[in-house]
Amino acid sequence: MTSPEALLLGARLDEDHAPVTNGWMSVCRRCGAYTESPQGHRHVPSDLRLERAQQWLDGQSPVRRRDRAPVAA
Questions:
Q1: Could you give the angle at the alpha carbon of 50 between the alpha carbons of 44 and 29, nearest 5°?
Q2: Are 45 and 8 in contact (CB under 8 A)?
Q3: Backbone phi, psi, residue 43, to 5°
Q4: Sign of the dihedral defined by the CA atoms of residues 15, 60, 36, 4, in that order
Q5: pLDDT exceeding 70 applies to what percent of the chain?
Q6: Distance (Å, rounded) from C-alpha 9 to C-alpha 59?
Q7: How confident is the model at residue 16 (pLDDT cuts 50, 70, 90)?
Q8: Residue 72 vs residue 58, higher pLDDT
Q9: 3-class SS of residue 73
Q10: How is the chain split into domains, by residue range?
Q11: What average pLDDT does the segment 36-50 reach?
Q12: Could you tell me what percent of the chain has a pLDDT over 90?
């Protein structure tokens, strides 16, 4: 059974990016969180790895800000 915290974090990961799997394993190649199936339709992080998934998501904030910043001419 998946905890409510894991479901909420999975939804946040889904908003950030679509899961990318290799088709054999139910793990997103981008963030390392588990997915619902090897086809990777949505993130379902393990309760044991919630902290790691949260750290990955928090680490993406500076990257997103940098990517959205206007380019100086």
A1: 55
A2: no
A3: -80, 140
A4: negative
A5: 82
A6: 14
A7: very high
A8: 58
A9: coil
A10: 4-67
A11: 90
A12: 58
- Residue 60: CB atoms within 10 A of its CB come to 16
Task: Tell the residue number behind the tokens 């790691």, with chain if given.
Answer: 52
Joined together, the tokens standing for residue 14 give 């889904």
d(CA 17, CA 56): 12
Q: What are the DSSP calls for 55-66, one per residue?
A: HHHHHHHHHHHH
DSSP-assigned letters across all residues of 6-37: HHHHHHHHHHH------SSSSB-TTT--BBSS
- What does residue 70 show for φ and ψ, rounded to 5 degrees? -65, 145
